[in-house]
Amino acid sequence: MSGRGSIRRRLFFQLVGVAALLSLAFFLVVRALAEQAAEGTQDDILTASATAIADSLNSEDRGVTLELPYSALSMLATINDDRVFYRVVANQETLTGYDDLPLPKELPRLGTPVFATFAYRGEEVRAVSVIRPVGPATDITEVIVTVAQTRAGLAAISRRITTTATGIGLGFFLLATALSLWAANTALAPIARITGSVTRRGPKELRPVVADPPTELVPLVDALNSFMARLRASLYQTENFITEAAHRVRTPLATVRAQAEVTYRKLNKPEHKKAIREMIRAIDESARSAGQMLDHAMVTFRADSLTRDRLDLNVLMAEVCDRLAPTADLKDITIHRVTSEGPAMFEGDGILVQAALQNILDNAIKYSSEDKEIVVRVTVSDMLYLAVTDQGRGFGDVDKSSLTLRFTRGSNVEGIVGSGLGLAIASEVGRAHGGRLEITQNPEGAGACVSLILPRS
Amino acid sequence: MRIAYIAAQLSVVFWLAAQAAPAFEVEDRQFYPAAPQRSVLKIISTADLEAFDPIIRGFQAAQPGVAVDYTVAGTSDLMQAIYSEEAVFDLAISSAMDLQTKLANDGFAQPYLSPAAAGLPVWATWRNQLFGFTQESAVLIVSDAFFADPAEIPENRDALISLLRNNPARFQGRVGTYDLRSSGLGYLFATQDSRNSDSYWRLMEVMGRLDAQLYCCSGEMIKDVASGKLALAYNVLGSYAAAQLETTAGFQIIEMNDFVNVMLRTALIPVGAENLPDARNMIDFLMTMNTRPELVAQSGLPAIDAGSFQANSALRPIRFGPGLLVFLDQMKQRNFLRNWESSLVQE
Fold this sequence. Notes:
Chain A has helices at about 5-55, 70-75, 150-200, 220-265, 270-305, 315-330, 350-365, 420-430; strands at about 55-60, 65, 85-90, 95, 115-120, 125-135, 140-150, 310, 335-340, 345-350, 375-380, 385-390, 435-440, 450-455. Chain A is of the alpha+beta class. Chain A folds into three domains: about 5-160, Beta-Lactamase; about 200-305; about 305-455, Heat Shock Protein 90. In chain A, a hairpin with a 6-residue loop joins β6 (about 125-135) and β7. The longest helix of chain A has about 50 residues, at about 5-55. Chain A is rod-shaped. The two termini of chain A are about 40 Å apart. In chain A, about 25% of the residues are buried. Chain B is an alpha/beta fold. Chain B has two domains: about 1-135 and about 265-315, 3-Layer(aba) Sandwich (D-Maltodextrin-Binding Protein, domain 2); about 135-260 and about 325-345, 3-Layer(aba) Sandwich (D-Maltodextrin-Binding Protein, domain 2). In chain B, strands 1, 2, 3, 4, 5, 6, 7, 8, 9, 10, 11 and 12 form a twelve-stranded mixed β-sheet that branches. Chain B is globular and about 60 Å long. The termini of chain B are far apart. Mean pLDDT of chain B is about 90; it is low at about 1-20. Chains A and B meet through α2 and β4 of A and α14 and α15 of B.
């Protein structure tokens, strides 16, 4: 619900805005109608009063007389305690009543009263005037009766109606607001549903979304599915590329090295032999570095989407030791394998763990002098431990934890080829499996002890 | 103390001299000094000094420092004073509800939202401008000297008419009522009678034939009935009669059982009032008369009691409203008085 692009908020405010407009329109219409009705009521009563007065006009010998009926004025009290004024005029002369009450601007016609609103004696009054001819046909006198009343009662009614209309309008608005909120939430519920189904997925789960989206969201879901398909293809390609690259780089290097060794044996001159040896060394270095870089890239990629196979650490250890046995033999190094008593089962990616073991063991061989021994031991306690202990030169006095960073090496590596990637790879594999890499001095003398620690299953 | 009193008296003299001589007729006037004097409240009223004296003293006790200048005038004079001459008074108290209504209707009264009005029925006030604080009925009083036999005393208007009609010699010159030409209250009672029943005109005819005596005020009618000069007087102010009965014997008060007009004595604040705070305090004081029985007893002015109308259905309170203006219509008044004169003053 944050950010300027919130659909829910926009939808809500638009609905509320419409509700506010409707409420206002309702309020204005109700008030206008009610006030019109109230004014109409006052006009009706005033007309009835004026008519009652006009009906009591009589023609006598002395002229026109009026017997003002009691009800003519008392009926005006029905609305409120409003002030009442009246005037009866015959032949421009005030017969009775308030002689300063203004006469109507236009003469009323028989049966058609004339209404007016004006200020009189300090207050606004509503006035009605009716006309009635009085007297014998030969001597007709047109008598105008005007009755006026202040509008305090009307104002009170208007205030009451305004209050009621405001209350109803406000209630309507609040209800509409609540409904708007509900409507906005309901309309956006499918988005939340699809979001949830995508969020809950595992890292490798790139299947298309199958939630049944509303029509408006079909293009979005289609786009998402198509994007995931492309991502899946891209990931597959990356994996293939890494495998392919490892193969393509390692194989020619091995060929070149073999050829160089053959050439080495054929040469007699010591300076030529030395040059070729240098070359072989460089090739080894390149092969190692390329292998490790690819290993590292592979670890980074595979760790993101870890496969979880059920594996025995003893088996993996044996395979790696077998693979590196020739390298160790070259330096007359003996690798002692100590397996755990039972199987050391864990869940993880066999290729990664093998890569980690290979790098650790490779390091141990590389930094050991000839005729030394390396112990590879698998132990099972609350975690699985695979410890590789050598009798080499150790790591010197650098910070042990920095050794697992990429391109960081020990402080005493002069004369030995290395990229500084080996322990970084092992450490990343440990972390990817929920374990870690532990680097200590060999407790039984010179050398290092590197342990890969994995959680058991 | 004595010097202060003389000074107050003197100041009244000077104050009176400074005022232009009013054209309306002042019946009585009393200045109630206050020491120390904070302000002066000028009241014009139709109520007799004896009746209002306890109320003023009660007000002064509640509001020390307010001197009261109390002027008594007739109902028509009070109307004239406020309506035509715009004399300066802070409060106008009158028994003529119709004239008070006309003052309010025509814009001579200013509104005041009295907190005390909440304790009274809605019909006791009008437009927040008229404040009724007493309810006083129009009664018949009969002299004990003429009515030895209680069974003879009429209890309604028809009985009164036949009594008078059947005994012309006995009552000749011995009946009294208000002179409507000079008494606003009498006119109010008469017009309300005529609205309520046709018997009013028959009664006036009979009284006219008996050479009825006409009075300006209730007090004198009561006096003449008590002394035996009159056998009966019609439409006498019941509150005055009851007050008089406490000190004077010789007459009885009869509330008719067909209907009894009940008048509210009302106060209003004229637009020209100068001492608004005290005028408002006085209105609040008057409106709470029903919570001060001792004041009601002393003044003889009964406070408003909505319950009495349920107890006696013959009581008809005169209602405020534009209807009261009808009989003040020039033409209507002229006709009414002409009819009244032709009935009563048969010369």
